[in-house]
Design brief:
Layout lengths: L2 E14 L12 E17 L4 E3 L3 H15 L5 E7 L9 H16 L6 H7 L8 H7 L3 E5 L9 E6 L6 E7 L7 H11 L4 H20 L3 H23 L6 H12 L3 E5 L6 E5 L2 H14 L5 E6 L7 E4 L1
Parallel strand pairs: 3-4
Antiparallel strand pairs: 1-2, 1-11, 2-4, 2-5, 5-6, 7-9, 7-10, 8-9
Helix pairs in contact: 1-2, 6-7
Length: 315
């Protein structure tokens, strides 16, 4: 094995149903892997460690951590071909970390579970959706890990219907909470009340999961919207409203008025989403929104869920 190319999918973080840090709770966060945008990293054996492409500082920090932890002897040249835009709610950091980490581990003939790799690179502590998107793809619900040296693990995984489409609503002039601000927000907000946690858990168990299993978009979308609204209101003190971007909020409201179901914000945003029955419906909604808005700070992209994890090509 001399070369490896890894393409890792973005993910939508669809909310939490438990935030009290209760290890006995069966569920925590929910989300879905999407086919694009994506991270692509190429690595090959070399005489010394080198990095090219965007995000070089982050990549070097990941590499240094892995060298220190596993005493990696085979240097690599790592080329970051493309990345997911940072801090817009699509899980860019986790996918980059796992793509780089997996390349380093594989080309050094070392074996390590992805959940442990994620934890080592300081990913997957609060939510395991990104880690599971890299490993499995599909619709995912996480829970606490059984040990403290691995990322949160998956409690439920379901295939997402291939015909359903997702319209991403991206505010190109905004960024979601991250870094110290994000940590401070979680610390100050604390966990959900018992009544809110109970409502969110019941919505997931009694509506979202059964509807997804039956390919019932109306029921699934209504459940996702309920979770999104409640979780968005919980986080509103730190994002100025139910959702971060007023422009994205307007588009989501317009989509709901037109009959769309399953709307919300991924993670801290500002990226919003609308889940639609098929590509035709997604194209029609996108065109209506574009016709009604002169503001071009909103970018609309159509994608589908990805029911597989990262694509790994070895030479």
């Amino acid at each position: 094995m001399q070369k490896i190319t890894i393409t890792a999918p973005a993910r939508l973080h669809l909310g939490f149903v438990e935030l009290n840090g209760n290890a006995a709770s069966e569920f925590g966060a929910l989300g879905v892997a999407i086919e694009r945008p994506a991270v692509t990293v190429k690595a090959e054996k070399a005489s010394e460690w080198t990095v090219s492409g965007p995000m070089q500082g982050k990549v070097r920090r990941y590499v240094d951590k892995l060298i220190a932890e596993f005493d990696l002897e085979q240097p690599l040249h790592i080329d970051v071909i493309r990345t997911i835009p940072a801090h817009i709610g699509l899980g860019s950091g986790t996918q980059l970390a796992l793509a780089v980490g997996t390349a380093c581990i594989r080309l050094n003939d070392t074996c390590i579970a992805t959940s442990r790799l994620s934890h080592l690179l300081r990913r997957g502590g609060r939510s395991g959706i990104g880690t599971a998107a890299f490993t499995h793809g599909g619709f995912l619900v996480d829970r606490e890990a059984s040990t403290k040296d691995e990322a949160r693990i998956i409690a439920r995984r379901l295939e997402f219907p291939e015909s359903w489409c997702i319209l991403l609503v991206i505010d190109t002039g905004n960024q979601g909470a991250h870094g110290d601000f994000e940590s401070d927000a979680f610390r100050k907000l604390g966990g959900f009340s018992e009544s809110l946690a109970d409502k969110l858990q019941r919505t997931l168990l009694e509506q979202v999961l059964p509807a997804l299993e039956c390919r019932d978009l109306v029921g699934f979308g209504a459940g996702i919207t309920t979770i999104q609204n409640d979780v968005g209101d919980f986080f509103s003190p730190f994002q100025g409203g139910r959702f971060l971007s007023s422009e994205v909020t307007e588009v989501l409201e317009e989509a709901e008025k037109s009959g769309a179901t399953g709307v919300g914000q991924s993670s801290w945003g500002p990226t919003g989403f609308v889940i639609l029955e098929n590509e035709k419906s997604a194209v029609e909604l996108r065109n209506r929104v574009l016709e009604s808005r002169s503001d071009r700070s909103i970018r609309l992209e159509i994608c589908k869920a990805r029911n597989e994890g990262a694509q790994i090509q070895i030479e």
